[in-house]
Amino acid sequence: MSLKPGLNSLWPTPVGAHRFAGAAEVNPLLARMFGALRATQAHARGEPGAAAFFASADDLLQRIQIPEWQRFVRFVVESLQQTVAGANAGAWPGAKLSMRIEIAGMWFQCSNRGAFHDLHNHGNCSWSGVYFVQVDPAGSRHAHPVFGALNGVTRFYGPYLGRLGGAHIDLGNAYLQQPQHDVQPEEGLLVVFPSYLEHKALPYEGEQDRIVISFNAAIHSADGDDRVFAYAPA
User: What is the pTM (predicted TM-score) of this model?
Assistant: First the structure.
């Protein structure tokens, strides 16, 4: 593929942001259900039920069957469809716009008292997501005497992060010099991102636990043929 005249932006990083219209109704119910699941799973694992950090098993799709949950899952699938179709609009042939979404795992995490989730990415999938179920409002979170405005944010790092160590810095590469983007946690917000993108949850402390739902997804052609490109010699 030839370059266009002028500036070409190669390998951009698509990230989708979506808001769940049913959050006010569904989120409190999910928080209560997750509290019960946390107590059960922590006991089975021999973990303290009131630990600062907890991650559930990744079988929420099989475990929860109530209508409110199905409404949330539909929102996740529709958000994935919108984000993935937009990201691939210039790469998919027209016949490939019909997709089959396979959510490989979905789980929840709870944190408080300074707990955090260190830098990581997700394997064996092409897309991942994080949905904020419960967190203190921004005003009280930002008033924390140590964490301030970074209290409980999710931080994403650009794919070139590992290239910046020891790199020459001048005015010409100013666009690279802030390699992270912080997403403020907001109840009802879903962020969909490529699974390779390094990210972390910064330390959180608040009146309420910070509860998020995470998931991994693989995207396939509805006809079962995932081949897109036919490579020819240059």
Answer: 0.93
